[in-house]
Amino acid sequence: MKQVRIKIMDTESEVYVDVIDVNDPLLWNDAIENQAAKSSVKLTYEGSDDKYQSLMTSSLVFDLLVKDGADGKFYHLFTGSETRYQVDLTDENNVLLWRGFLLPDQYSEPYKSPTLFVSMTATDGIGVLEGKEFPDTAYYTTDRSIIDYLCKALEMTGLKQDLYFCPSIVAGNGFRWDEIYVNGRLYTEDYEEEEFGIGGSWERDTVYDVLENIVHDLGCKLFTYNGKWWLIGINQQHKELLSCFIYGYDGEYKGVSQVSIQSSKVIFTADPIISVQSPWKRVEVSASYDADKDVVTEKFYKKDQTIFSNDPYIHWKKNHCSINEIPIEGKWFYEFTYPGQTLPNISPGWPRVIGPAGWKTESNIRGSYIELSVPIWIEKSDSQWEWKKIDFELDLVAYTINGTKEKFDNREYENVMRYELMVGDDVLNSNFPDSPRYKDSVLDLRFSQGRNEWQDGNSTGVNRVWVEQRSSLAGKIKRQHLVINKSGWLQLRLYPPVLLNNFTPTFNDIGIAKLSIKLASKNKFLSNKIRQIDYSTKKTVDLFHIDNAQDNSFKKFIFKRTGVSEQKSWRQSWKRNGVNESLRYGECFARMIHDVQPKPHIKIDGRAVGVYGPLNLFEFHWRENKKFIPTRIDIDFSEGRTELTMIENVFENVTDVYW
């Protein structure tokens, strides 16, 4: 048998009480939590019949002996607290094998018996994360690193252990995973702002769901062993030497450690069950981008009268001109509020829109504009058969006191309004008269004559409002399916009014009556990797996280390092750990699945002699000497036996993949 000691500690008083295996009488004591029953100490690692299990959760089951038949002798351990009683499982040399917490809501014993056993269960705490949310709402609203989410979730199990991380996929630029971020809005659903903008309400993913999704999408297996959390890439499990990044329970990076993995020859107590598994013919990896096609909306130009009004000014940067706000309906109100008032109170109407102001002439219009303060990155399609496209709609309006329909008809106003839409240095649309794009970019112009009126019929002259409806010049354009065939920053420039001369300033500012830019592109990532083999097997993987250079979705990885500016191209350059390549994240994932199941191999289920943990490799002879990876473990310390499910350790960098 394997000698082990179970220590139960009250985390509130930090008092240990030893529970000792019954077969080691030299270590007996008279503690209230007495000795464990024979054949009662079992540690189970839940797994699967393949290599792809993400969460290898574990639990320890043991019985406590009650010699005097006292009722509820261990009832005080039933507390409802998930982290009140810590359970340490150590070997005869006091080396920590496993740590967890007593389940707070399970307690059973027979009603009457002179000698009885009380069954106890401790777990690694991962299961208790179901139904829990991150206590700090910043985890649902701000950018945080993948490691931050992992370590916070694991800390919430109650186990403040270091994380040893051997990744399966790494960034092509060499950034560690603590330098790779996601936005917390990724883990929310149905976000709705309150009516007055004071707060918001949304459905938030549980800590368990976030943890499971991250571990799965990293292509790793998570378990606790020897007082550490282990996060091992499925394409690293075959190695006898793991290069692990170490993080403290708070996510602090501590360095890299080389960890040797013990390889043991396994002997079964009876003939094990052997089954053969096939390689994958096809691996299909997919992910939804959940992208918002509307990349520029009315929040970029519209302002209402409430104190919580959207601030459109933050979306624009001025260059040798100013920004004004004007009433969208072109109404100015002149209010007389007391008897004898000669100069009225003047105010523009609501709602209002903003736009460039400060008229120019043809000689000085170049270089005077407002433009998006944060340009929009457009990543060209990664498929030669698909292009991204833009739908662009722009309505401009300018109000005037001295403009006339006659001058409009004489085409004196046809070049007053100017705009340019660009991707990088390439001009998609421009209505400058000398632009090669002018014919496709010209605005449809309309002129409307204004009118004035009293708003009420009060003859006293008090509380009367004179409404001035100014004449307007409106320009509209709508372009659909503008093809984007290169990556670059999408930028929109709007120019102040361009007048024929500086003697008659007919227009002073231009308002954005409507602005819409939509990005039409594929909303799903799909990778099909097919091998040139005779099998027909297929593996389907759905990823929650995916790389994405676009910012119109929360589904993207963001690179952050102090003093380094992120390059958008980094987001879509990844490689399998140990392979020199630059691929999309989903492409790496699909190839990795082929690598770990490249040929026919065997799975063995049986009861092995000895005690083995999850950080083991095994050797067994079936037709020839083979090595194996454990995928399911049930350890009986009292009997010195281990129920094992193990998969043959086959791995190769598969090259016969097409598509």
Structure, explained:
The chain contains five helices and 49 strands. Strands 1, 2, 3, 4, 5, 6, 7, 18, 19, 45, 46, 47 and 48 form a 13-stranded mixed sheet that branches. Strand 16 and strand 17 (253-260) form a beta hairpin. Helix 1 (146-155) packs across helix 2.
Topology:
Blueprint lengths: L3 E7 L4 E6 L21 E4 L12 E9 L18 E7 L4 E7 L13 E8 L19 E3 H10 L7 E4 L2 E3 L8 E4 L4 E6 L6 E5 L2 H11 L2 E6 L2 E6 L7 E7 L5 E8 L1 E4 L7 E5 L4 E7 L5 E3 L5 E2 L12 E4 L2 E6 L3 E6 L8 E4 L3 E6 L2 E2 L7 E4 L3 E3 L9 E13 L4 H5 L8 E6 L2 E5 L7 H4 L2 E5 L2 E4 L9 E6 L1 E14 L3 E8 L2 E2 L11 E10 L3 E8 L6 E5 L15 E2 L14 E3 L8 H12 L4 E9 L6 E7 L1 E13 L4 E8 L8 E2 L1
Parallel strand pairs: 9-15, 18-46, 20-42, 28-39
Antiparallel strand pairs: 1-2, 1-5, 3-4, 3-47, 4-7, 5-6, 6-7, 8-11, 9-16, 10-44, 11-43, 12-13, 14-15, 16-17, 19-45, 20-41, 21-40, 22-27, 23-29, 24-27, 25-26, 25-36, 29-38, 30-38, 31-37, 31-40, 32-33, 32-38, 34-37, 35-36, 41-49, 45-48, 46-47, 47-48
The total beta strand count reads: 49
Tally of DSSP helical segments: 5
Strand content: 35-45%
Helix content: under 10%
Cα distance spanning the termini: 53 Å
Largest beta sheet, briefly?
13 strands, mixed
Structural class: mainly beta
Low-confidence stretches: 22-37, 191-199
Computed over alpha carbons, the radius of gyration is 35 Å
Categorize the overall geometry.
Answer: elongated
The overall pLDDT average reads 88
